[in-house]
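Technical note accompanying the year-one report. For the benefit of new consortium partners, we illustrate the data format agreed upon in the data management plan: each record pairs a sequence with a structure-token string. No post-processing was applied to the example shown here.
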Amino acid sequence: MRVSVSKSQVSGTVRAPASKSYTIRGLMCAALAQGDSEVIAPLSSDDTGAARDVLRAVGVSIAREVSSKRGEWWHITGDSFREPKKDLFCGDSAATLRFMAAISSRVPGECRLTAGPSLAQRPVGPLVAALRQLGVDCSAQDGLPPLVVRGGGLRGGVTELPGNISSQFVSALLLIAPLAGREVTIRLTTVPESKPFLLMTLECLKVFGIDVAASPDLREFKVSPQVYKPARYLVEGDWSSASYFLALGALSGPVAVASLNPDSLQGDRALLGFLKDMGAQIEIDKNTVTVRKSRLNALKADLADVIDLLPTVAVLAAAASGTSELTGI
């Protein structure tokens, strides 16, 4: 196949797809809530499909609804777990595998979580060790999937793990901590990576009635026993997906991207600051961000917490006058 791309004048409006990270977090919290919840405007993708499938396999009712007025939403009846009849295949969705490793401690009987070929090569040993410290009976041969988790035994207490391996390990512990027999303290032995994802987890927990006491540096979390409450959870647009169109606006524009939360906790919202630093013309009207063609200047940017922005920022830097410096990569 041959593809030819020629110089073009680009302009218009697009709608940002829903956030995958928020969709999966909303699903997991709704599954743990007693009663009926709604996840509104979710993302339909391979990863969110994997999350739906494994939750259904352990007894969670998830019904997809669509209307011309409301668009798409998922109706979820949670806290109705039963032992699965087969392995829980998580595909290559790391969030699904890691979150379900913790949630499976609430499922009666035994859960065996399997993964696709890529995810099967990614270690889960630190998460298994942290869950064991809380009383969970779980194992993973050589620290790799599949994982076996036996329900019950989530007593609580103190658990420690490195913070610089995966924020999803920490988020998995935060999801299950409120349901332990006693207060849970999660201590990170190193500085956490991807702090924005931890803040997103805390935000989602808050919507479903869960309070977490977190230290300012996100190195320690204290969670008392609590009950998840049903909620109507609106999934905001994905800043990572929107970043390509916003950058396109600065290079060719004007381009407007709708369904974005200007105050989002998503780390990739940092692109707005990078564009402003480069001199791009930006307009924000409620949930729509417009970027116009601009003369761009070089910038210095730390991408440690927003590494997904590297390709976009690199292209912008290539089109900017001067020498840019990108660190944290």
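Partners are asked to follow this layout when depositing records. The chain has two domains: 12-16+237-327, 20-234.
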